[in-house]
Amino acid sequence: MKRIVAILLAALLMLGSANALVVQPEEYNTNFYSKTGLYTYDAYVLCDSLTLRSKPDIYSRALRQLSHGQKLYVSMQQGEWYHVYATEHVDGWVKAEYLVVNPALYVTEAETPAYAYGSRYAPRVALINPGETLPIIHSTMAYYVVSLRGASAWIERPEARDTEEFNLATLQNITHASLTCTDPQSGQTLYQGEVTDPAALARMGNLLADADDKGGPVSNCPFSIALLTLTFADGSNAVLDLACDDCCVFRVNGRDYAYARSLFTAEGAPKNSELFSLFTGANEALGR
Questions:
Q1: Of 33, 68, 82, 276, which residue is least crowded by CB atoms under 10 Å?
Q2: What does the pLDDT read at residue 20?
Q3: What's the confidence (pLDDT) of residue 6?
Q4: How far apart are CA 268 and CA 270, in angstroms?
């Protein structure tokens, strides 16, 4: 299987594909089948240490300990357990929740930064060496979430590297803001207003920049109703699509940002009426 992956990767790299670092899984492991006659799927251990047991029972005999990232071969599932082969001659049972089965693989071609969440501005949790193979457990429009050292980490998708990322820091330099709210059914304008007061713009910037980049469109909030157009000190502009329920979420360039993180309290989450209140009459116009 390693040889097949290496050949596929080399071919993709030679083609110069934007997806060159991602190897899609086979329907089943043909190499393991040729040796054993068994149809199995590749799987990888997600936790630091996983016990291989003799039966699908937590109290059954422990056969050996499996380490994070170890490759296994899954032959069947029984409830919350997978029957797996650690080698051609060693098999047993493991809890299904600790495996990722038949994932695509991300193979690093150079030193690759991994982040705590989906943003170049997120804390870097690792710098991955070239040639490492990591199972992909989730993906967004701009990032792959991979299993790394017993935890998950975010790696920027190759095709997203050359695109300009929306910069949260820019939100600290708003010089003008206008809000337009439209009824999505009738197209009728519900509200139009602007903010030019420096103190209010500074407050707006602090709320919006205090955000978590979710790496893609992950919220089910109602969008395409309230569009916030911002002008910055360098003359550039950005259009933020504000959620129109109570959630503090805005969407820009197809990605969701949960803002006003500092307003979280023991009593609960912040409400976006705090932001809308900076526009005179906006909350009332939206029936908030």
A1: 33
A2: 38
A3: 39
A4: 7
In CATH, what class is 168-285?
mainly beta
| Of 62, 65, 60, nearest in space to 49 by CA | 65
The pLDDT assigned to 164 comes to: 53
The pLDDT tens digits of the residues spanning 206-252 come to 999 999 888 778 888 888 899 999 999 888 888 899 998 889 999 98
The phi, psi pair for 285, rounded to 5°, reads -65, -30
Structure tokens at 232: 């910055």
Half-sphere exposure of 244 (CA within 13 A, CB side): 22
- Range 121-144 average pLDDT: 83
Each domain of the chain, given as residue ranges in start order, spans 26-101, 168-285
Calculate ∠ Cα 130-132-135, nearest 5°: 140
pTM for the full model? 0.52
- CATH 2.30.30.40: does it fit domain 26-101? yes
Q: What is the DSSP string of 128-193?
A: EPTT-EEEEEEE-SSEEEEEETTEEEEEE-GGGTTSPPP-GGGGGGEEEEEEEEE-TTT--EEEEE
Give the H or E element holding residue 213.
strand 212-213
CA-wise closest residue to 247 among 215, 214, 279, 280: 214
Give residue 121's pLDDT. Answer: 59
